[in-house]
Amino acid sequence: MTYLPLDDDQNPIPALKLRASGAHHFNVTGTAARNSTGFNVDTRIVSVYATGPVYLKFGDNTVTATTSDHYFPSGLYYDFAIGGDKTTQSGYISALKADTDCVIYISEKE
C-alpha cells in the first residue's frame, strides 16, 4: 500500500518533499563512516547520491559498511525505504569507498 499519488497506470508518483533539517553528507574513505545525526523517527524514505562508488549498509548508530555490503555506483540519485508500518526504521547509513575517496549526500523525505 502506498500513500503516494498514482499515475494513470496506477503506478506511484514519487511526490515526497524534502524534510527540513534532513540533509546529511559525509566523506567516504577506506574506513567506514556513517551519518553523525540519526534520521528523524518519522522519515521512511531517504535519497542518496555519492560522488564515487561506495558500499552501503543501513542500521542503527553502530552500523558499519564492509565490502560485502551493497555496491552503490557514483552519480546515481536513488530513493531507499528505511522503515515502515511493520518494519523498524534504520536511523543511520554507513558507507565505505569502493574505489576513490568521495562524498555521500543523503536527503530525508516526508
Could you characterize the architecture of this molecule?
- The protein is mainly β.
- Helix content is 0%, strand content 43%.
- It has no helices and 8 strands.
- The protein has strands at residues 18-28, 33-34, 45-50, 54-59, 70-72, 77-81, 92-97, 102-109.
- The strands form 2 sheets. It has a 4-stranded antiparallel sheet, with no helix packed on it. It has a 4-stranded antiparallel sheet with strand order 2-7-4-5, with no helix packed on it.
- The protein is globular, with a radius of gyration of 14 Å.
Q: What would the keywords be for this entry?
A:
mainly beta; globular; 4-stranded antiparallel beta sheet; 110 residues
The 3D shape can be described as: globular
Strand line-up of the largest beta sheet: 1-8-3-6
By helix and strand content, what is the structural category? mainly beta
Mean pLDDT, to the nearest integer, reads 92
- Counting H and I runs of at least 4 residues, what is the number of helices? 0
Low-confidence blocks of residues: none
Please write the string of helix (H) and strand (E) elements.
Answer: EEEEEEEE
The radius of gyration over CA amounts to: 14 Å
Measured as a percent range, the helix fraction is under 10%
